[in-house]
């Protein structure tokens, strides 16, 4: 069960953090894992650890996204799994937020999801099979968090995109789902500070922050052939935080 041997998976933002956790879990389930990231150093290291391949990929650059995904398809003759995970979560008040701050978060988190999904769907449709998994969040679609209004909007937006895309592509054997992580210990989270992480641990019912692999194991399930009857759905992985 949940054997991904023979599958080719691209993980955006896979150089480190949650993306790396997803990539590791996919590799454990025997998929060929390709890392697409703007961080060359960590990206190459992660790809080599997982016997995969690194592609320099900025999800906000539509031409580059299309080029990289086309190159992957031509080389491997398939792209069965796309994990659209690249994202940023800088904290700032609405009062101090510039248009540039707002756009940067939407461009990476939301528009980037559209670009990679659109490029992958073209080939997934050709092969009549595909699994797309978005890394959303609990912040935005379920809860709010002071300082993350632009981020919450982008993460809720991803789910709106997902539901319509899932309906549009269901007839081609393609499923599109999302994972909503709670607080997962990554460099991105560490940037929010010790005080934030201490407070979070206190309110998470399992009394610990999540690990990137916790998201990875969920991704393996959604990426599996066995999950073919699930589309347009989300799975919350947050240690019970939003209960
Ligand atoms: P991270 O900062 O540790 O890693 C993010 C990765 O994305 C990095 O490798 C970075 O280089 C890459 N990236 C950034 N901009 C990119 C771009 N334009 N193109 C390609 N790659 C790019 O962050 P993380 O905590 O691992 O977060 C990963 C995803 O999980 C994000 O979408 C984030 O919103 C989501 N998330 C994280 C948490 C958490 O607690 N860590 C919670 C909920 C959701």
UniProtKB/TrEMBL annotation:
Root EC class: oxidoreductase
Enzyme Commission numbers on file: 1.1.1.100
Top-level taxonomic group: Bacteria
GO MF annotations in UniProt: 3-oxoacyl-[acyl-carrier-protein] reductase (NADPH) activity; quinone binding
Gene Ontology biological-process entries: fatty acid biosynthetic process
InterPro entries, per the entry: NAD(P)-bd_dom_sf (IPR036291), SDR_fam (IPR002347)
Gene3D superfamilies assigned to the protein according to its UniProt record, in alphabetical order: NAD(P)-binding Rossmann-like Domain
The keyword Oxidoreductase is annotated on this UniProt entry: yes
SUPFAM superfamilies assigned: NAD(P)-binding Rossmann-fold domains
UniProt keyword annotation of Amino-acid biosynthesis present: no
Keyword list, A-Z: Oxidoreductase
PANTHER family associated with the record: 3-OXOACYL-[ACYL-CARRIER-PROTEIN] REDUCTASE, SHORT-CHAIN DEHYDROGENASES/REDUCTASES FAMILY MEMBER
Family: Belongs to the short-chain dehydrogenases/reductases (SDR) family.
Name under which the protein is recorded: 3-oxoacyl-ACP reductase FabG
């Amino acid at each position: 069960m949940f054997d991904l041997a023979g599958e080719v998976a691209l993980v955006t933002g896979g150089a480190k953090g949650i993306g790396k956790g997803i990539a590791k879990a996919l590799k454990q389930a025997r998929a060929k894992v390709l890392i697409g990231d703007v961080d060359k150093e960590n990206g190459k290291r992660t790809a080599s650890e997982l016997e995969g391949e690194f592609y320099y990929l900025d999800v906000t650059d539509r031409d580059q996204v299309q080029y990289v995904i086309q190159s992957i398809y031509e080389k491997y003759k398939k792209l069965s799994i796309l994990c659209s995970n690249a994202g940023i979560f800088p904290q700032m008040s609405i009062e101090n937020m510039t248009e540039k701050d707002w756009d940067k978060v939407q461009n990476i988190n939301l528009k980037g999801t559209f670009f990679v999904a659109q490029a992958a769907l073209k080939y997934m449709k050709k092969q009549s099979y595909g699994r797309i998994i978005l890394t959303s969040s609990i912040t935005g679609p379920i809860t709010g968090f002071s300082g993350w209004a632009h981020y919450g909007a982008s993460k809720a937006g991803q789910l709106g995109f997902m539901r319509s895309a899932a309906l549009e592509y269901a007839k081609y054997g393609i499923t599109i789902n999302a994972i909503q992580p709670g607080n997962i210990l990554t460099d991105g989270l560490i940037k929010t500070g010790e005080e934030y992480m201490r407070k979070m641990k206190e309110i998470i019912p399992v009394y610990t922050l999540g690990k990137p692999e916790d998201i990875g194991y969920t991704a393996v399930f959604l990426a599996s052939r066995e999950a073919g009857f699930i589309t347009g759905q989300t799975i919350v992985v947050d240690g019970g935080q939003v209960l």
